[in-house]
Amino acid sequence: MSKLWYNVWPSGLPKTLVYGEKTLPEVVEEWAQKQPERCAIQFYGKSTSYGKLNQQITSFASGLVELGVKAGDRVGIFLPNCPAFVVAYYAILKMGAIVVPINPMNKSMELAYQLQDSTPKVLVLLDVMYPLYGAIKDHVISIPHVISVSLQDELPTESTLPIHPTMTTPKQTPADTLDYTVFVTQPHQPLPDSKATLDQIAVLQYTSGTTGNPKGAMLTQFNMLANAVGGAQWFLSDEGDNIHLCNLPLFHITGMVNSMNVPLYSGGTIVMMTRFDMEVMIQAIEWYQCEYWVGTATMNIAVVNYPGIENRKLTSLKSVFSGGAPIPLEILQKFKELTCCELLEGYGLSETTAQATTNPRGGGKIGSVGIPLFDTDVRILSIEDPTKELVPGEIGEVAIKGPMVMAGYWNRSEDTKHSFMDGYLLTGDLGYFDQDGYLFISGRKKELIKASGFSVFPTEVEGYLYTHPAVKEACVVGVPDPYRGEEIKAYIVRKEGSEVTKQEIVAWAKEHMADYKYPRIIEFRDELPKTGSGKILRRVLAEEAKA
User: Fold this and answer.
1) What does the pLDDT look like over 56-92, one tens digit per residue?
2) E-strand spans in 337-438?
3) The model scores a pTM over 0.90
4) Which of 359, 314, 366, 319 is nearest to 337 (CA)?
5) Averaged pLDDT for residues 372-400
6) Helix, strand, coil share (%) of the chain residues, nearest 5
């Protein structure tokens, strides 16, 4: 199929980009030289300039080298949004190692799996989350060096925005850890002359795979650069001060790219929040006159339904993009009324370093996830015959080729092989193009559940449920939810003699799984539908749940 989307390509934008040869840390270093006093990060009133940020990045990178970290080694970041996340991330990239971002909502089993799979040499974690690591380090995996970060060292003396009570825990420095503040300020030996290159792996972004176990998508330095350059070109105008609201989690690929890399690539300011709090977010937009925001459908719905929102000042926003789930028409209309700014939807995966398609500013189609970005080709392939490309209007599997597509899966050559065809990433998502070249997502060939913008694989949740002593059988499905996009429902057969309640199952799951992942809806069954070979028929239960 010819690239129909070129017929609706945004006026003034090139169809292909020159990405340059500098890595993202080198770009930040350039900004530090050009505008050292310019604010790079604004954190509840504590400002970090480009000059200071670059100094901290360089110091942290030198410190990693002294700890024995080499190019290609992995370094885990187990932090919520805070300036230390940015420093650690860019330092790891600067010296050629690999970032392993870890969801700070993970519980011990989830943390153990990711650490065992990636085997990092250093783990950077929040001090209050050390007990999670401490519970597994002696009998699962022990990391040679652990660097402890305290939010008390990150926060200002006097804040401009309300600070959540959970962020005020007194500083803790476990005996077997290095203090981040000391580590990043103490003298280190200069970095070696050798520098990171664009073809090196930069990030292992964990995503659910066909087996239900998370897989590390290997994203290169060039992948990260390409979507930062593309995002800046697509999303930003040349006017104003380039101020970005950052309340998406930075461990997540969308937040990482659009709320951290795009702002720093373009010399902008990141107004960073650790927790998503509606009132604090609105105050941040009003106080700092935020111009750009990338969020999720859940956040967008929360904005338009927030009491008194029509009396708040949100008109500084110039570009707002959203992903994770389709946004209802009435939400799109009300959002524009409140902000005088269009809410535009896009589509991407961890494997595509966030966005691969998005609606253009000043246009687009409601219900569509837009058109392919710079230097990107998207095809719709027949489910029956993947070698056949479908015509507009026909639904098939979405396949993507472009500068943001991953190099493959970490230590999973077979999964990598089966995920590509003729250089195109097979996404497992179903969709179609219309006659103008706009992409519409119809559903998922995979069984991933999208809850509040996060990907949840049913078999992973089931694996945890099966560790409950009262669970004999479990099947997890997604059910439509107007707020979260999809809610997670578990069908459970209890073991004989068990009297465990639904509430007890939910409470147990909440304790053992990340907040977005645990099932909130439980239905007990005497038996689950199965095939003749004994395989549980998830499709039947999913259809029942959605009905």
Assistant:
1) 999 999 999 999 999 999 999 999 999 999 999 999 9
2) 343-349, 354-358, 371-372, 377-381, 396-401, 408-409, 420-421, 424-433
3) no
4) 314
5) 95
6) 30, 25, 40
